[in-house]
Specification:
Radius of gyration: 15 Å
CATH architecture: Roll
Structural class: alpha+beta
Strand content: 35-45%
Shape: elongated
Largest sheet: 6 strands, antiparallel
Number of strands: 6
CATH superfamily: Hotdog Thioesterase
Number of domains: 1
Number of helices: 1
C-alpha cells in the first residue's frame, strides 16, 4: 500500500465529540481514490461504483495529520479496484480500513465503458 496524500485535521473537520467527522474522511478517501483511478485509467470519466464495509478503528483529533493509502486490487473491463487504509502520520495508528473501492469508467451518458487497460499496461508501482 502506498500513502498518497496527507490531511491536517482542522476544526471544520470535527464532529460533536471534537473528533474527526467520518463524513469528511470518507469524502477525502473518495476524492483520493477517484484521482488515483483517473490517473491509472488515463481518463477523468470515472465514477465511484462501490465501497465495501468501512471499519472505523481509531479516531483523529484536531491537529493530527492523517495519510490516505491505496493499494491496487484488480482491473476489470470497465472497472478498477483498490483497498484503502488511513492512518495517523506520526503514530502510524490505523484510523480506517476499506477492503474494496471500485471505480468504473463511464461514457458521456454515464454508462459503463471499456477502458482498454490490462494488468500488463497499467502504470502500477507496487
Amino acid at each position: 500500500m502506498k500513502f498518497y496524500s496527507r490531511k491536517l485535521i482542522k476544526p471544520e473537520n470535527l464532529n460533536a465529540r471534537n473528533t474527526l467527522f467520518g463524513g469528511a474522511l470518507l469524502r477525502w478517501i473518495d476524492e483520493e481514490a477517484g484521482i488515483y483511478a483517473m490517473t491509472k485509467l488515463d481518463t477523468k470519466n470515472v465514477v465511484t461504483k462501490y465501497i465495501s464495509e468501512i471499519d472505523f478503528i481509531n479516531s483523529a483529533q484536531q491537529g493530527d495529520v492523517i495519510e490516505i493509502g491505496l493499494g491496487f486490487k484488480a482491473i476489470g473491463k470497465t472497472s478498477i479496484s483498490f483497498s484503502c487504509e488511513v492512518r495517523n502520520v506520526f503514530s502510524k495508528q490505523s484510523i480506517i480500513t476499506i477492503e474494496n473501492i471500485v471505480f468504473v469508467k463511464v461514457d458521456e451518458k454515464g454508462n459503463a465503458s471499456p477502458h482498454g487497460k490490462t494488468l500488463e499496461n497499467l502504470k502500477i508501482k507496487k
